[in-house]
Amino acid sequence: GDIVSGFLVKQTTGQVILKTADLKEIHIPATTIDKLTAEKISSMPDGLLADLEPQQAADLLEYLATLK
User: What are the residues whose beta carbons fall under 8 Å from the beta carbon of 17, sequence distance 6 or more?
Assistant: First the structure.
């Protein structure tokens, strides 16, 4: 009956691994999952970049891309 949300890290026949917003990994046995669905909306808050100039937003996104 619990609902768990996070980013899908890995899915196998035996388990699903999610990463939560606080960067913790949750390992869930596949046999305990009733339903697995993707969110229809982004987890990024609306208007997060609203106070940035276009170049600042571009610089931020470029920096974040280097963290992969």
Answer: 8, 9, 10, 11, 25, 26, 27, 28
Tokens representing 33 are 């999952």
Q: In the 8-state DSSP scheme, what is residue 30?
A: G
| C-alpha–C-alpha distance, residues 17 and 49, integer Å | 30
CB 4 within 8 A of CB 28: yes
* pTM exceeds 0.70: no
Residue 44, SS3?
A: coil
- The pLDDT value recorded for residue 48 is 85
Distance CA 47, CA 63 (A): 19
- What's the one-letter identity of residue 17? I
29 strand-pairing partners:
15
Radius of gyration of the chain (CA): 16
